[in-house]
Specification:
This protein is an alpha+beta fold. The protein has 27 helices and 18 strands. The chain has four domains: 165 residues, Glutaredoxin (3-Layer(aba) Sandwich); 331 residues, Alpha/alpha barrel (Glycosyltransferase); 75 residues, no CATH class; 82 residues, Glutaredoxin, CATH 3.40.30.10. The protein is globular and about 85 Å long.
Length: 700
């Protein structure tokens, strides 16, 4: 159930300290009777001066069980009175403050063996955790202690067993500081690491439904990318088959929005059928890239369809006019989880009519009994050839009918009350979607995606940097707030590099380089290597962590390694290579023992270990001949390749990017130069000649 006394104090019935927050999640609690504070010195000072423990509640706007606990407990005047008398209560949006979330989530997992949101943690006034959990019901049920009982136990312990609390807090603080003492491994970095990681993933693979492990199942986009790379490097069909099978299963499942496009957060079952219905920007960015690469590898129409439907959804529903991409859509509408997305046969017949509804219901497993709480989550389970044959249709006729039915049902669904949308814009998440839009815009020849990527990059550079050119974390309705974290620099840098390769406009590469140089100044551990999660001028928390795990999104360090390796090849800067190597050495053993938590880092290591391939395109992209050469490259999935380019008269680009030096038009025609392992082939001017060079095996 996670996203997994008698009151004596005066009850606060007016707005609390959250009323001026920018986070929609915090604003949802601004009228609670709990006297909430945002994390900050005001709350911490009051806890110290009044000698009260802190109650820290962490969640996010699209979290269903966060809403449940808010309604059951935080809107309850009696519970609020207990909190207000005996605690200083702090509410945190995990999406705005990943630093706080990651520290105290590690503590909760250490104390309980599991984590999730809402996260409920009790701290000393110094910020040291001594007890925690996730969702607590208001009274004892579900085999869990009620929140009232937990509060009374903490109150008694604070009064009567303070020494025990101090000892627990000190132990937890020491444990949290362990990451600070990590040192890089001096062992060799080689493909044995990648091979061992694949062997480990293979052991936990679900060969029936795809994905890894059992329920709940989260979409493993970064792991699927690493499997595609493994297959490309080794020629192992099993790795590619695992990735493609998982992508097909998710696309046909209920976790995918079959009418509106885009993926829900995760599946509660092994079949990808029943999701938690919130939609997160980062999931849809990472998954759309995985499906794009699957389409580039196979040409399978389903994969392209999922890319376009997902990105069309983002443009339609998750894009701010200023250019930023919104964070999340809620799981609930009208206070009911999933209500917006589910159907009955009668509702479908009312829109489509009897005959079309019968075919649609057979295809998408819609029945009178339903597959979830008496309603139906749309998913594709039927064999299309059988459905077509039974209906007396060809496959193409069936496909056309279903497409028309989906469009009509989508329009009908648009009349429903939509889930709430969290319209804050987060820098790192935007960097992920920037990559997806830029890559899909060129590969699929969708100018609307490319224009959205350009608009987003302009927004990030203009609206989400402070006066010193430092990234900020969050933006909403014209107001930027919070200092950027490591991933806000490194993931955005990845996005800018992708945009450079899509547009060949040099200033995007310069911006990426500038962001990583800022990482070197403010985040880098000059003594041991790798980067801290927070900058050197960030507020002091109980620990300054280094994060390496790629969980729901890439860690800042794995994103740094990816961006740095590309810049090292494009800009010929060896320092980037050295820094990326230090990150790999920190995680050399965990990448083998726990590969599921390092998908992005494994892909970065794969890129690091491959023979290099660089492509220089000389010519103006406005020239159709140049564009044809560029399209020949971007239409392919080339995991070992970086692309550079310039107009013939662009002397600055040639100065910045050594790969472009000395490159010219060939007999007045735009030309492409393919270089591999520090050796270049003859330039070509025709797309067919370029394609032939790109498909040649690498030299031994």
């Amino acid at each position: 159930m996670i996203c997994p006394f008698s009151p004596t104090s005066k009850i606060i019935t007016m707005s609390n300290h959250l009323i001026h927050a920018t986070s929609p999640y915090l604003l949802q609690h601004a009228e609670n009777p709990v006297d909430w504070y945002e994390w900050g010195e005001e709350a911490l000072t009051r806890a110290r001066s009044e000698d009260k423990p802190l109650f820290l509640s962490v969640g996010y706007a699209a979290c269903h069980w966060c809403h449940v606990m808010a309604h059951e407990s935080f809107e309850d005047p009696a519970i609020a009175a207990i909190l207000n008398q005996h605690f200083i209560s702090i509410k945190v949006d995990r999406e705005e403050r990943p630093d706080i979330d990651s520290i105290y989530m590690e503590a909760v997992v250490a104390m309980t063996g599991h984590g999730g949101w809402p996260m409920s943690v009790f701290l000393t006034p110094a910020g040291e955790p001594f007890y925690g959990g996730t969702y607590f019901p208001p009274g004892d049920r579900y085999g869990m202690p009620g929140f009232r009982r937990v509060l009374q136990a903490i109150i008694a312990a604070w009064s009567e067993r303070r020494q025990q609390i101090s000892e627990t807090a000190a132990t937890m603080r020491a444990r949290l500081n362990q990451s600070r003492r990590m040192l890089p491994d001096s062992g060799e970095l080689n493909t044995d690491i990648l091979d061992a990681a694949f062997d480990s993933l293979y052991q936990t693979y679900d060969s029936v439904y795809g994905g890894f492990g059992s329920a709940p199942k989260f979409p493993p986009a970064m792991i699927l990318e690493s499997l595609m790379r493994h297959a490309h490097r080794t020629g192992q069909d099993a790795a590619l088959a695992m990735s493609l099978h998982t992508l097909r299963q998710m696309a046909n499942g209920g976790m995918y929005d079959q009418l509106g496009g885009g993926f829900h957060r995760y599946s509660t079952d092994v079949r990808w059928l029943v999701p938690h219905f919130e939609k997160m920007l980062y999931d849809n960015a990472l998954l759309s890239r995985a499906y794009l690469h699957a389409w580039q590898i196979t040409g399978e129409p389903l994969f392209r369809q999922i890319v376009e439907e997902t990105l069309d959804y983002v443009l339609r529903e998750m894009t701010d006019p200023a250019g930023g991409f919104y964070s999340t859509q809620d799981a609930d509408s009208e206070g009911v989880e999933g209500k917006f997305f589910v159907w009955t046969p009668a509702e479908i017949k009312a829109v489509l009519g009897e005959e079309a509804a019968d075919i649609f219901c057979r295809t998408y497993d819609v029945t009178e009994t339903g597959n979830w709480k008496g309603k139906n989550i749309l998913h594709v389970e039927a064999d299309m050839e059988t459905v077509a044959a039974d209906a007396g249709l060809t496959l193409s006729q069936l496909s056309a009918m279903l497409e028309q039915s989906r469009a009509r049902l989508f329009q009908a669904r648009q009349q429903r009350i939509k889930p709430l949308r969290d319209e804050k814009v987060l820098a790192a998440w935007n960097g992920l979607m920037l990559q997806a839009m830029a890559a899909a815009g060129t590969a699929l020849q969708r100018p609307d995606y490319l224009q959205a990527a350009i608009h987003n990059a302009e927004f990030l550079m203009q609206k989400m940097q402070d006066e010193q050119g430092r990234m900020v974390r969050s933006w909403k309705q014209g107001r930027a707030s919070l200092k950027g974290y490591l991933e806000d620099y490194t993931v955005v840098a990845e996005g800018l590099i992708a945009l450079y390769q899509a547009t060949l406009q040099t200033h995007w590469l310069q911006e990426a380089d500038r962001l990583l140089q800022s990482v070197h100044r403010h985040f880098w551990d000059d003594e041991n290597g790798a980067a801290f999660h927070t900058a050197d001028d960030h507020e002091q928390l109980i620990v300054r962590r280094k994060d390496f795990s790629d969980n729901a999104e890439p860690s800042g360090n794995s994103a740094y390694a990816t961006a740095a390796l590309r810049l090292s090849r494009l800009l010929d800067q060896p320092d980037y290579l050295v820094r990326a190597e230090s990150i790999f050495r920190f995680m050399r053993h965990p990448m083998v023992s726990q590969p599921g938590g390092f998908g992005h880092l494994l892909s970065a290591l794969d890129f690091y270990l491959r023979p290099s391939r660089e492509i220089a395109i000389i010519g103006d992209l406005a020239d159709p001949a140049t564009a044809a050469l560029h399209q020949t490259v971007t239409a392919l999935w080339l995991p070992d390749t970086v692309i550079a380019g310039m107009s013939p008269d662009d002397t600055f680009a040639a100065t910045l990017i050594p790969l472009l030096q000395g490159r010219t038009l060939v007999q007045g025609k735009p030309a492409a130069y393919v270089c591999r392992n520090f050796s270049c082939q003859l330039p070509v001017t025709e797309p067919a000649e370029l394609a032939a060079q790109l498909h040649e095996p690498p030299p031994s």
